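Supplementary Note 3. Input sequence used for the single-chain structure prediction.
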Amino acid sequence: MNVTISPSSVAGTARAPPSKSYTHRAILAAGYADSATVRDALWSADTRATARAVGLFGGDVDRGDDGRLEIDGFDGRPDVPADVVDCANSGTTMRLVTAAAALADGTTVLTGDESLRSRPQGPLLEALADLGATADSTRGNGQAPLVVTGPLSGGEVSIPGDVSSQYITALLMAGAVTDEGLAIDLETELKSAPYVDITLEVLDDFGVDARHTEDGFAVDGGQSYAPTGGEYAVPGDFSSISYPLAAGAIAADGEGIRIEGAHPSAQGDTAIVEIVERMGADVDWDRESGTIDVAAAPLAGIEVDVEDTPDLLPTIATLGAVADGDTKITNAEHVRYKETDRVSAMAEALGKMGVETTEERDSLTVHGGDSTLEGATVSGRDDHRIIMALALAGLAADGETTIEGADHVDVSFPGFFDLLEEVGVALERRA
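The predicted structure, written as discrete structure tokens, is reproduced below.
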């Protein structure tokens, strides 16, 4: 599907979708349990991949009419899957499920689509091998397809922290049900650290004790997953909140936009509220009620470090294209290893729209003051975050902006274009 965005002003109320990061962890945590109910879950292409994996490990995920997920788990020890675990485009699924597979007493094969098969898994495979499992890349390049044979019993392992925080999440979740538990020593500084804080929060809600240590993280073995009252509720997603928030900062009329479901949590992407405010938008976050009100104002470029918030880079780049002056996004090298190289993708797409950028290995500078944002036909790179960020650019561009492959928003925000229409965006969808 291609979507064409016409310049538009926006107003009204937008509701944040549930968090993709929390939903992944909650589905798998319920899989590790005997049974659990997950409320307010995001049901998207990525989270469905995690649900399928739980089913292949011997659990069952049943989605009711009210959206609740009733999950019968595999109670700490996954079965050997009867089929290949296809993680589709979901890097979170691939990493979390690879560690779960190492607990099975047998061999699991994991794969995904072309994009996922290009993403690095080597450090996690090496860590699992150090813990007694057999974990290999079929092509010997640290990328999927993967073949994992367990079981592992736990112990101490070291792993780099600057490639993906998902490695640490995967090990902590699996380590809780091993005999010995796990001590994880970080070889390098941890990037995207708030995502591990999300993991610790979810584990705690499921009755599992995991913690920071002087050298990294640790989780005791022999634990059971069981949320209080048998239920867990997923909070709103600040990665997704970044899009209506930025839309309001770019194009809200006098009435502005109100975003609901924005309750505080461990999500690092809550930083987007401060970023938009620093750039000059009128923002009011009522943390108790979970609402954010935002109205447009002249924006000015700033410097933003995305070491802990890599998913915000496309949104910040679009804000920078509208702002006066330069917006420099730093500590961004790890953003190149997502569904696509998001640093290069945003530089290329914004360039087609008339925006000057300077791309370096670890940074992207958007020269908004030297640019005139113009409508163009741009590729979404099959990446949900690139697509949504470019849709925002279309609100302020001179002329129409067509985004190719826009259906990939289903990965994290299936109702994204519906929401844009509800707040006044003029758009056209073509198959």
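The first strand starts at residue 2 and ends at 5. The first helix runs from residue 20 to 32.
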